[in-house]
Amino acid sequence: xxxxxxxxxxxxxxxxxxxxxxxxxxxxxxxxxxxxxxxxxxxxxxxxxxxxxxxxxxxxxxxxxxxxxxxxxxxxxxxxxxxxxxxxxxxxxxxxxxxxxxxxxxxxxxxxxxxxxxxxxxxxxxxxxxxxxxxxxxxxxxxxxxxxxxxxxxxxxxxxxxxxxxxxxxxxxxxxxxxxxxxxxxxxxxxxxxxxxxxxxxxxxxxxxxxxxxxxxxxxxxxxxxxxxxxxxxxxxxxxxxxxxxxxxxxxxxxxxxxxxxxxxxxxxxxxxxxxxxxxxxxxxxxxxxxxxxxxxxxxxxxxxxxxxxxxxxxxxxxxxxxxxxxxxxxxxxxxxxxxxxxxxxxxxxxxxxxxxxxxxxxxxxxxxxxxxxxxxxxxxxxxxxxxxxxxxxxxxxxxxxxxxxxxxxxxxxxxxxxxxxxxxxxxxxxxxxxxxxxxxxxxxxxxxxxxxxxxxxxxxxx
Amino acid sequence: xxxxxxxxxxxxxxxxxxxxxxxxxxxxxxxxxxxxxxxxxxxxxxxxxxxxxxxxxxxxxxxxxxxxxxxxxxxxxxxxxxxxxxxxxxxxxx
Lengths: 463, 94
Hints:
The structure holds 2 protein chains of 2 kinds. Chain A is of the alpha/beta class. Chain A has 15 helices and 11 strands. In chain B, a hairpin with a 2-residue loop joins strand 1 and strand 2. In chain B, helix 1 crosses helix 2. Chain B is flat and about 55 Å long.
């Protein structure tokens, strides 16, 4: 039963939210020791919420009535810990609700707990959490992807059907691909970032991870909409899923961006193309000559933004405070020692890239390349309705396999980072398996605010 | 680009990190590898005319009206660990 069917039964009074919540808590407690997807179950508040929903008149129950939804540990839920999987914020309690949390509560979703992640959302394997790595439920020796690895693993393990993640360079879509589920990075500005702990503000976007495609669209409907508290929030009408005529749509294949693609993934891509062609979709070769620069561009820009955004973790405004510190400098040095190695590395890369001696060559250059990448997509979307490509260059790798090879790890974002660089929506969906039996994730990119087309095209591959 | 040990130490200082000499050496090696990799951006010709690709309808400027009323201010003060009445206290650092 998917989430929308569950909610429908709760609205009809055929299922009780409290029973569903207790079952969900039991599933998480049973499975979490193996995969470490949850950092905390919000047992008390979830059960209180469930009882309140059961006490409501059924006709007043919301779209997600009784559906347990997990939130990534960088999203604020008032009165609950939001640690960003970091020792720096281990004891931080959210003083207010994120916009997306308000939306979930308004639709009677049960906020069941917070999920593990790479520290401050920096990583592609979930091995950077200060509270231990998450394991891929499909193969416990492998990573679930990152940084929203806990959210993806919890959904893939069947603990929950829906979770929120955040995506700055692929952090929803890459773990969705590694875990065989659906993950959407919406158009930049379509989901408010209010109450999301900032990593790189020009690229961060909250989005849904779900076991079911229709549920993904339903959750995006709940999350999207204008929020005056986020100055980059779009004022366009919120996303609404509608029946779409797909026949005659044109999908682009960026051949120049897919050179050297893993053969097993290419075969899944070819199969998807064949199935879509049979269903009346046209295909067109397109060129994205600058897309290959997205990953290095992403690392310079997001690290630069992070070096500024994470300056607030100084022990005075936010974060761990070492009481033994002497003067201001000593205080900074002692408090900021709580950051993990990857966060330190990225802050230092950003500090270096923004420094007066290097800004022209690194930060400003990357901004110019960013414009070229966005321009690539603008040209492509004059000719096509969507672009089909893989979600990841490889399937889930083993824990520890890429720890020593940063560049190889960073290249996990090869096919996902362009969407953040250009601000475009992109949907990662499972399509086939490799020889090891691991899920292959493909991806559909759309033009700004055209998420509905992506869902409609992915639905054709499901039928 | 190879970054020197001295440059790493200087960058760490600017970023307010107290790194050990082992960390400095490790970061020198790792950052050099990352900078070598991102150096590919230097070769991209960026003096080319571009379409305006700003997202239509996004990033509007909002009216500069105050949004935080007294109840909101009270909540913010309540979130602060150490206070004396309405005064928020931080550790003396000067």
